[in-house]
Amino acid sequence: MVVLVLTACPAGLRGHLTRWFLEVSPGVFVGVVSARVRDLAWQRVIELCKDGRAIMIHTTRGEQRMAFKTHRHDWEPIDIDGIYLMLRPHTRDGTSGRARPGWSKASRYRRAHQAKHRQPETDD
Known about the structure:
Shape: elongated
Distance between the termini: 78 Å
Number of strands: 7
Strand order of the largest sheet: 2-3-1-4-5
Oligomer: single chain
Structural class: alpha+beta
Largest sheet: 5 strands, antiparallel
Radius of gyration: 24 Å
Strand content: 25-35%
């Protein structure tokens, strides 16, 4: 089984891949092909991808029974004792992935509740 995910790739590449794979969602291809066809399709993806990104997950022998291939992607697959993991790049600013304070609905409700129960100041 092969799963291929394309991001920002030309439409011609998507059309080319529909010869061997089923496109289940825009840019997501699934299929059962031989290892030779899988490797040739991956070479074609690298040639035609241009500025886009691609990830391929395919079945292999081993503990996890799958392997990853990436092209121009921020996350990279690493092999640790026979288990593939995806390595995320480290950001130095520390704010990546965090929501700004007061963004959630719960935060808005809390602020509205606090404003409602504040005692008005009197000028006597």
